């Protein structure tokens, strides 16, 4: 049996292996993904983003428990950064989710960014698709949470939750620009801490000032205590409300279109680069170009034009 | 471009709360370019094996300073076998008396490192003996 057939057959090791092959960019993974693609499109994909330490992994653990109570199958993709110096990584999100390790209805996978920007690895979307094909009803993606340019999650997830904590104070003004646009749900976690009420109020005010078009989704602010499991039911209700809105408003179709377009564009970009670069490296052209650049007899722009014009890659 | 990276699960089985060694090993592995899944304290053998399978690791590296190594380590190995996953290598370290090491190796633990070992020696051993599974 192929890996894809075994995945569809419920084989956990095959699924784990395929995710590895995707992450390691093995050619064979593409064949398997092709076979799985018709079996995708059923999972509800939920993204969690927000600064490191905000409690994303702790919340994921609670959300998993909540969906398991509804008897749904849950996949988790948790992303942590790769060290730019060594290429290694410490992936620690599982620490908060250990109680689900043995539950056959839960599959958790940690991924390293491996140099990708935007809060996810380049493999994330494909790994989500494998979980979708495995029959997961819900797939939760936890992004890295550094910086404010984590917009990739928006085109990956159906619902994006932005997790924040009290005490951001005036900073909230500074960071609002980016995050107000990407969140469908806003979470003020660590509600046991001072200032939670105020942070939630400020956020709500800012969201209301956005003057949405009539009928558009108005994101709500939910207060939670991830560590003690407080506010999780309300949070999951909010996810479900957004999901229902996506369906009834026709917005879901738009999201799916965007997601398809992105997966196509990402794959095209990667494949083109790999093909062209692989070919010129193997036929010696790349070395010639490097020499030309060294001697300043050419420039990067002309070199690329020549490679493309000469179909030097085909 | 296609490239295999070594994936390692570092964890602490049982009720042992000593986590300095495990954290040092996790960092040394990261600095060696490995992807380390750190699962933290208080893991059962079953949890460790389930996580290792989902994460598709090449190596399970466990740290034990509690004295319970003679029960916990063989339990992890037999659980791996039960799940048909004994192709994942298993190593350990911590406060483990020399006299116990031959028995543990016979029980499926590939290698054991005790206090005072430099992390270079440990990383070298992994580089030589563990390879990403094809
Ligand atoms: C620091 C320490 C503590 C700290 C731990 C802090 C922490 N967060 O880790 C505190 C004070 C909390 C503590 C508490 C206790 N401790 Co204490 N503790 C120590 C001590 C002094 C040093 C351990 C340490 O951190 N070493 C530094 C690290 C870097 O070294 P390491 O872990 O050994 O790791 C090295 C190697 O072993 C190896 N290695 C380790 N793990 C792994 C994993 C892999 C995969 C590999 C390849 C290699 C590897 O590589 C590392 C680098 O060389 C040891 C004595 C000793 N000298 O070992 C006692 C010791 C471990 N503790 C002991 C005891 C009994 C306790 C308590 C039960 C005491 C009590 N009665 O309350 C409690 C229990 C705590 C608990 N919940 O489990 C005993 C254990 C006895 C036994 N095994 O038979 C020891 C051996 C002291 C003794 N001689 O009696 N302890
Ligand atoms: N006080 C408090 N701490 C919390 C809460 N939720 C999570 N934490 C703690 O915040 C720390 C970071 O949590 P983690 O989930 O790893 O954050 P992440 O980096 O966003 O994934 C951990 O020590 C958690 O126990 C909460 O509601 N209140
Ligand atoms: Mg996390």
Task: Report what the structure shows.
The complex is a heterodimer of chains A (314) and B (134). Helix content of chain A is 49%, strand content 13%. By secondary structure, chain A is of the alpha/beta class. Chain A has two domains: 40-249, Rossmann fold; 263-310, no CATH class. A seven-stranded parallel beta sheet of chain A has the order 4-2-5-1-6-7-8, with helices on both faces. In chain A, helix 4 (56-69) packs across helix 9. Chain A is globular and about 65 Å long. The two termini of chain A are 33 Å apart. By secondary structure, chain B is α/β, with parallel strands linked by helices. Chain B has one domain (7-129): Cobalamin-binding domain (Rossmann fold). Helices cover 40% and strands 23% of the residues of chain B. Chain B contains five helices and five strands. Chain B has helices at residues 20-31, 45-55, 69-82, 101-106, 119-129, and strands at 7-13, 35-43, 59-64, 89-94, 111-113. In chain B, strands 2-1-3-4-5 form a five-stranded parallel beta sheet, with helices on both faces. The longest helix of chain B is centred in the middle third of the chain and has 14 residues, at 69-82. Chain B is globular. Classes of the chains: A alpha/beta (314), B alpha/beta (134). The site of cobalamin has 26 residues of chain B, from helix 1, strand 3 and strand 4. Chain B: Its cofactor is adenosylcob(III)alamin. Chain B: Keywords: Cobalamin, Cobalt, Isomerase, Metal-binding. Chain B: InterPro entries: Acid_CoA_mut_C, Cobalamin-bd, Cobalamin-bd_sf.
């Amino acid at each position: 049996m192929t890996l894809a057939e075994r995945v569809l057959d419920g084989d956990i090791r095959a699924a784990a292996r395929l995710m590895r092959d995707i992450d390691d960019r093995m050619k064979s993974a593409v064949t398997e993904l092709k076979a799985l693609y018709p079996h995708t499109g059923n999972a509800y994909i939920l993204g969690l983003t927000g600064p490191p330490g905000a409690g994303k992994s702790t919340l994921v653990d609670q959300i998993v428990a909540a969906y398991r109570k509804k008897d749904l199958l849950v996949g988790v993709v948790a992303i942590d950064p790769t060290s730019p110096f060594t290429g290694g990584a410490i992936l620690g999100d599982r620490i908060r989710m250990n109680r689900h390790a043995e539950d056959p209805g839960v599959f958790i996978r940690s991924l390293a960014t491996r140099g990708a920007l935007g809060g996810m690895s380049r493999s994330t979307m494909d790994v989500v698709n494998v979980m979708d094909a495995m029959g997961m009803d819900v797939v939760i993606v936890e992004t890295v949470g550094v910086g404010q340019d984590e917009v990739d999650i928006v085109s990956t997830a159906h619902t994006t939750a932005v997790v924040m904590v009290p005490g951001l104070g005036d900073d909230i003004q500074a960071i609002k620009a980016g995050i107000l646009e990407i969140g469908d749900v806003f979470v003020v976690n660590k509600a046991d801490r001072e200032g939670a009420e105020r942070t939630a109020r400020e956020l709500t005010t800012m969201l209301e000032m956005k003057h949405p078009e009539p009928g558009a989704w108005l994101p709500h602010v939910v207060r939670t205590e991830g560590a003690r499991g407080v506010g999780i039911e309300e949070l999951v209700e909010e996810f479900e409300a957004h999901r229902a809105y996506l369906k009834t408003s026709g917005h879901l179709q738009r999201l799916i279109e965007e997601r398809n377009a992105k997966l196509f564009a990402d794959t095209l970009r990667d494949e083109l680069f790999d093909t062209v670069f692989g070919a010129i490296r193997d036929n010696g052209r790349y070395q010639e170009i490097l020499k030309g650049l060294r001697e300043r007899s050419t420039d990067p722009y002309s070199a690329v034009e020549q490679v493309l014009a000469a179909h030097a890659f085909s | 471009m296609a490239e295999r990276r070594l994936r390692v699960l570092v964890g602490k089985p049982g009720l042992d709360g000593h986590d300095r060694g495990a954290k040092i090993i996790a960092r040394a592995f990261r600095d060696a370019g490995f992807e380390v899944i750190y699962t933290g304290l208080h893991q059962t053998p079953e949890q460790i094996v389930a996580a290792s399978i989902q994460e598709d690791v090449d190596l399970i590296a466990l740290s034990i300073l509690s004295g319970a190594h003679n029960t916990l380590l063989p339990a992890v190995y037999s659980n791996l076998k039960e799940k048909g996953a004994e192709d994942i290598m298993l190593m350990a370290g911590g406060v483990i008396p020399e006299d116990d090491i031959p028995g543990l190796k016979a029980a499926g633990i590939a290698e054991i490192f005790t206090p005072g070992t430099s992390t270079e020696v440990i990383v070298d051993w992994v580089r030589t003996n563990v390879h990403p599974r094809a």
